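Q: Hi! First time asking for a complex rather than a single chain. Here are the components, and I think there are four in total. Is that enough to go on?
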Amino acid sequence: MSSNSFGKLFTVTTFGESHGPAIGCVIDGCPPGLAIEEGDFRADLDRRATGKSRHTSQRREADEVEILSGVYEGKTTGTPIALLIRNTDQRSKDYGEITQTFRPGHADYTYWQKYGIRDPRGGGRSSARETTMRVAAAVIAKKWLAERHGVTVRGYLAQLGDIAPEGFDWDAVEQNPFFWPHAEQVPALEKAMDALRKSGDSVGARVNVVAENVPPGWGEPIYGKLDGDLAAALMSINAVKGVEIGDGFGAITQRGSQHRDEMHLDGFASNHAGGILGGISTGQPVVASMALKPTSSILIPGHSVNLAGEAVDVVTKGRHDPCVGIRATPIAEAMMALVLIDHALRHRAQCGDVGVMQPRLP
Amino acid sequence: MSSNSFGKLFTVTTFGESHGPAIGCVIDGCPPGLAIEEGDFRADLDRRATGKSRHTSQRREADEVEILSGVYEGKTTGTPIALLIRNTDQRSKDYGEITQTFRPGHADYTYWQKYGIRDPRGGGRSSARETTMRVAAAVIAKKWLAERHGVTVRGYLAQLGDIAPEGFDWDAVEQNPFFWPHAEQVPALEKAMDALRKSGDSVGARVNVVAENVPPGWGEPIYGKLDGDLAAALMSINAVKGVEIGDGFGAITQRGSQHRDEMHLDGFASNHAGGILGGISTGQPVVASMALKPTSSILIPGHSVNLAGEAVDVVTKGRHDPCVGIRATPIAEAMMALVLIDHALRHRAQCGDVGVMQPRLP
Amino acid sequence: MSSNSFGKLFTVTTFGESHGPAIGCVIDGCPPGLAIEEGDFRADLDRRATGKSRHTSQRREADEVEILSGVYEGKTTGTPIALLIRNTDQRSKDYGEITQTFRPGHADYTYWQKYGIRDPRGGGRSSARETTMRVAAAVIAKKWLAERHGVTVRGYLAQLGDIAPEGFDWDAVEQNPFFWPHAEQVPALEKAMDALRKSGDSVGARVNVVAENVPPGWGEPIYGKLDGDLAAALMSINAVKGVEIGDGFGAITQRGSQHRDEMHLDGFASNHAGGILGGISTGQPVVASMALKPTSSILIPGHSVNLAGEAVDVVTKGRHDPCVGIRATPIAEAMMALVLIDHALRHRAQCGDVGVMQPRLP
Amino acid sequence: MSSNSFGKLFTVTTFGESHGPAIGCVIDGCPPGLAIEEGDFRADLDRRATGKSRHTSQRREADEVEILSGVYEGKTTGTPIALLIRNTDQRSKDYGEITQTFRPGHADYTYWQKYGIRDPRGGGRSSARETTMRVAAAVIAKKWLAERHGVTVRGYLAQLGDIAPEGFDWDAVEQNPFFWPHAEQVPALEKAMDALRKSGDSVGARVNVVAENVPPGWGEPIYGKLDGDLAAALMSINAVKGVEIGDGFGAITQRGSQHRDEMHLDGFASNHAGGILGGISTGQPVVASMALKPTSSILIPGHSVNLAGEAVDVVTKGRHDPCVGIRATPIAEAMMALVLIDHALRHRAQCGDVGVMQPRLP
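A: Yes, that's all I need. Here is the structure of the assembled complex.
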């Protein structure tokens, strides 16, 4: 079962364990003639990279992407694009001690229940290391979306524990290690993270992601809705426990007269819907938000059981990432981009290259 | 593109427009030998049925399910099961007036942008009428899940606008038209709904759904996670704008030491995870929640545009359902059941009929 | 598992047993705006219909197609198109006697081994009755292929037992009940069939199918090749035991210097390849051929076993179709058309509406 | 579109160009706990390897398989298994001259028409080099099939041009470079091949493949039939132009009374069906045959056109493989094995681990 593949037409299959020899992906269905070179992956992989600041896990990867296939003389050929990254910083010893126990709140236990195998290599397949390849694949998706449709996909950290932004500026987002949209708060975030690290604990976060210039008509009712696919895409990111489109849970207490986005000849009056109605894009920005739990890999001992069926206390030694939500921002952008390119191709398959050209609201 | 199909191994394909001649579905991959008869569909279809009380839309359907194939002498044969319901109450005239305009907040506009077709028949394919077949298909899924694994799936209304339950009792849920878990509040809900109807407006809601006795090991990393598939399934329900698993957005402000579910020899100490870790079931109850927006079909005029590109005011005449969230409860149960049976079959495909029999926490 | 669905983007799901209440299909992914009405199905269903002459099984169907969804005011809407045909001529009594036995060479035995169910209703799902819906679905596919690309798909009977055509004329094919391309031989075929019927035996056949005006570039390497999909499509037809593309098995004894189709500025010098190279269409006619076995439903007693595990002799009473290959001709056309429309949509998904416009050989 | 993936539940995705940096595959859905090590791939890769004798193309590969993921301590973990082979013998210069022309009978032309890209690296993706990964993936499939079900899959060369076997002995097959089942003919084959090489031409071939101990019940009607999937699998092999199951095209001239396989209490009296009825295995050996065309890469000049639209004569320099059918034998075995393991998993998904245990014919 291709459960490690994402997308129906722009299909990304990832493989690899956090501390195995390598991670990689195969991208099948990419349109031919798109210019791609190995340097194109650098920027987004650096944004995602752990160890980019003292506020994220200290693992340091070279993360050099090798293009194994599907690109000839700098252009995609239409055949499968395989990308490979060797794991240079395995440090499996960090994990040696806990190979016989299950960390509470971690996938150790469920993988073992499902497969009967305990692969302790840095969480094996369940590690966030896998998301590196989502970001790499999305570099290609973003490039096609931008060149062909002018679509841009951007994310930011919208909450860190109980700290919320007190202002918003897209330019600020890329200028601090938190992807935080309000520069003035960065010192406070640094302070909060230092305290958190000292406590050995972790905290949750909220990440928002927005796609602009998405044309109307993308998304396929009923079980291939754009919002349904986005929900699956974001929920598939490690530690995500909730997903919202537009006003999300805020819509519960709204009245229909408030929530509906009225239409005027010069455009929509609001975007409570988050750019999607009936599972199809409206032409407004597509807006999604996700909640990330605090990681279970913390320094505070926790009650658990081991393979021998004994009660034990567990401490996760080694790297400690007090807020995994911070580096989830580029991953959320990646998943949004992968959903959008897939629907762009699905739309033109059924409705043609230009879709069904209707007069559109500005 | 099979965008009207749900599930990889227990595959449900639905068809039909709200006011077309019929709606139906085809279920492919159902295990053979399961006892099914037309009477089995009655109870859940009645629970979902509009018009079950004065608090939901007044459309009254016979909703008689005809089994067209896949069942012989009362048992599933392993071949496709087709179910058909004739639309007996079409009343298309209700919609005649708005065939040239777009209702703000409704899928009219996006369907027209995507397909270039304006099918006004009761919202056509985008109507909640389609969910009738999800409930019908889930009757079969629930029966197999219960008989083979003892799995039960139950839902309830967890918020109506700004009214939240002040107590919880599963027995109460089926004894009021709101699927509300606290009987004492029912008169207040009646009052609130009457006021809402009088105002011609609508309100949002929250529905929770819980599956019990789900064995550990169901769910497939990375892009076929149980929570990822649940998120897509619930988000595909009309009007849903947000989905949570376990503590959901509440996890943002939690610490890792609070959120992680510690394990003892007599079981888990808590269920913040909602029964899923790393995309795989833990053996605890699977808990999900969803937010429904207030319907855009209200009696209060709204600004919009028409096919001629003119500014217009729109009022949705005809049936008026002030809180679509109420009857979304059985639909949420249905989607949870369809996800679970699909993963039950996917698990035994890869890991065998009994899965990988590990010692399990009680 | 959607094993009753055909096609990745133009997806046809069929359901129904030969002698159940109805057969039908759901077509998902059809481009919007295509003109379709119920009368469009008549011609091809009549061509396929059993009982069109005394040389095929005497079952007489009304085969009235009802369009249940997906078409509004005579045009496809882009939503699923459901087609339904009620079974009016069930005559299950014919089959009553053999419900406890297995007919040698028939799927009775394997369905029972797989599903543990013995559904005797006219062969249940394994009956050629199912192919009626393939022909119906292909009516829509053929119409789109013709209107958008000028593609035509035609088939003929290329061998009946040991009788081969002694001439070829497309015009003759539709003017005799055998789809035979040489009118002068029709009396001889009539005579052979009468003798065969008298003997109570059956004979095999070969059917050829040709698609013209297929543009170059359709087909997806490696596992979605046009010829690979055609092979699966034709092999899925009841009684088919062999499939060839172009010269097929004749290529075994050829030299490379004979087989290769040389290219000149005014086009290809030959078409040994059958219009496909590397799984992708060349722009020449796509040519396929299939072998059909003689049906096992004959009047000559055969040794078999029964459900009680006893040795028995079996005679298939009731309808007797001495050469099922005759009416397989429209079914082969249907499968070719379904493969081509699927690849047309797949090609434009990846490569755009016009494909990659290269200078093409005339 | 995952057109480079094969299999629904045991899914193999291949990537790589003949003369790119590497080829590889990702296997998703493999059951956990299967013992696999890198040495397991050696035997079958050597059997397939080009250059194993002077009668096949002289390219010599190291073909060292590296397992990148999905195996821990010598056992499959249930996560994706990635296999990688570096291309050590690229010799692209061989192909330099023809980068501007199209070889008649080769996929050069169709790939360029589809994708607009001319990737001359040894035929790029269309090269038989890709089949190396099918053989590697099938090593895992064969091991599981043998260990769990005792299934064996074996192939042999059944015709070389107009030379057919004059005797049959499975033991002989692995003792000559032709996979020929009759040792006495080997000198004659050597002579024929030498003459063919001297002539600079090529010839076609027939390969047969047989699977034994396949239990009854594998295969899914209607569009997932075992024979339908086998037909697609074999037709997807480079140069294959025809596929037969059981008697194949021989069934055309048979009578029903000859073709049907009568059943006795001690088993089937014959196997004209090739072990499949109604798309489902009968429990008899599954028998398939395929026709391979003579390769178009020959030393005899041929008329063609070039990218500039000029008439040219083409000679394929470099390696010359006068009968590609010889080394197609292990590839045919591989595709049969991949189809069987996929259906084994699909069967237990729907019908359970032991299937539906019926009394079976010996």
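A: Residues 329-351 of chain A form the longest helix (23 residues). Let me know if you'd like any chain examined more closely.
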